[in-house]
Design a protein that fits this description.
about 210 residues, alpha/beta, 4 helices, 10 strands, globular
Amino acid sequence: KQLYGLKISLKLMNRDALVVGINQYPFLKDTPTSKAKHLFTPANDAEAIAQRLEEYGDFRVRRLPETIQGEQRRVTSDGLVKSGTLEDAIIQLFNPVGENIPETALLYFIGHGLRKNRGGVTEGFLAASDVDPRKNLWGISLRWLRELLQKSPVKQQIVWLDCCYSGELFNFVEADLGTSLQEQTRFLIAASREFEFAEEDIQGKHGVFS
C-alpha cells in the first residue's frame, strides 16, 4: 500500500512548467536611433505565476530569465533570453529526450509578441530578447509551436500566452488537432486575437491579462 501510494503521488506531481517573463528587448526598435521597446511588468507577472504553480499546482518550474536570490530561484527583470535558449527550453518541455515524459506540461510566456506579414501571409512569434525584425530576426514561430504540440507525447498540454497577436496559436486546422486518438488534452489561453495588441498596465505591478 505504501509503494502504491508513492506511485500515485509521483504520478500526480509529474508536472513540468516553463515560465518566461521577458522585460529586456535591446534590439526591438522602430528605427536604429529610437528607444528600445523594453517592458515593465513581465518579470513580476512570471514570478507570481511561477510561485502559484509551485504552491498550488505541484509543478516543477523552470524560469527564464532566471537569477538566484537568497537561495531562491526568481525571474529576473534585467536578464536576456536568446531565441535559441527559449526554443530549446520549449522543446525540452513538450518533447523531452528520454522516457521521463511529464503527465502535464505548461508553458507560460509574457513579453512582446510579433506578427510578420509577407505577401499576404501572416505569422505570429514569441519575441525573445534578441529579436530584430529589421534584420529578419523574429523569435519563436507560433506555427512551429503548434506543430510541436501536435508531435508532443505529453498527455496534458497547457499554453498560456500574454503577448500581442497570441491568438495566432489558435489557428489549428480542426482535422490536424490529433488529440482524440492520442488521449491528449490541450488547453490554450491567449491575451489577444491573432491581429490584436495585448495590454500592459504601466502603472500597476502586474499586466492586465495576467
